[in-house]
Structure formats: structure tokens, C-alpha cells
Amino acid sequence: MKNIILSVAASLVLTTSLFGQSPSKTVSADEIVKQIEAGRKISYENVTVTGDFDLSKLSERKNDATYPEKGKTARVYSATISQLITFKNVVFTGKLDFFRKETNDREIKEYRLVFADAVKFETCVFNETADFELANFNNGVSFEESVFKAKPSFVRVGLEKIPNFTKTVFENGSVFQNTQNDKPRDLTAGELAGFYADYLKSR
Fold it and tell me: Based on the structure, what is the number of domains in the chain?
């Protein structure tokens, strides 16, 4: 009888452990975007985010740069996110878009993000592409122990601190580029601390 009880207990522990690795609660990406627009602190743990997490379409924006480019007028529109953003043990089923570019015969419009507070994606799984191009992380960003199943884009990301890529996994490579004239690089998590340390020193 004692052995049966121990066996059942062990089975329950194993089942609990497996469920802990795969979040069962869901929240829509659109709902999180609405909360960010409303200025709410964002903190999610052990959930699955469904749909595309598109912050490139935030409505509160400032035209903070205008310049000529290739015979057109380029305009930069930035949205500032002031609150702390935290995701822990979260699965993102859709794409992440932090950048958008629109071009017509006369204009180029770029929609960028500025994060005033810290941003944390820790022990997260990104099932689709993640585009962080031209995002400014003014108070640090962490991707510790997260897994990117598709190739993420970190092109000309603005930083004040070395980002945390401890034990981050890029299953299909990555795209890192500091300036417009740099060649894009496919770097591993182990190479990134030195890469960004050199970049911050050179500014």
C-alpha cells in the first residue's frame, strides 16, 4: 500500500512539473497592446500569448525626426512606453513586431519604439519571427533563458546597458547589426556580451 501511495505521489509531481513547463492560461496579444497603450504596468507569468504581438501600431506617437533620403522625405515616429514590461515563462504563438516601415513615391515613414523602463523576456518561447529593429531600450532588456524558434532581428537597436542574453537559444540563427553600414551578423548568445560591450564602448 505504501508503495502505491508513493507511486501516485511521484506521478502527481511529474504531471505538475510538465504542466509548469507548458503554460495553460492564454491571453491575446491585442489585449496586452491595449494595456500598454493605457499606460498599465505589464507583468505576465506562465501564460501563452495568442496572435501577433504588434507594438508597431501604437497610436500615441511623436514625429521626432525628418530628413531627406534617396530623393524622398523620411519621417520617424516614435512611441514611448514608460512602464515596466515583464514576461516570464511565456509562450508567444505569433510574430513580434516592434518596427514598421511604410514607403510611397514621396515619403518614407518609420514607426519605432522607445522603452523608458526595463523590458524582460525571461524563459520565454518565441514561435514566430521577432523584429526588434530600431527599438530603444533605455533601462535594460533581458532575454535570459529564452528560445527563439525563428530568426530574430536586432538591427540598430538602441541601448544604454549590455542586454542579457544568458542561456538564450537561437534555433535558426539571428540577425544583429549596429549601424546602417555594418554587415548583419549571425551571433550566438555566448558571443553577444562582448559584441554589445564593444558597441557601447565605441559610442
Answer: 1
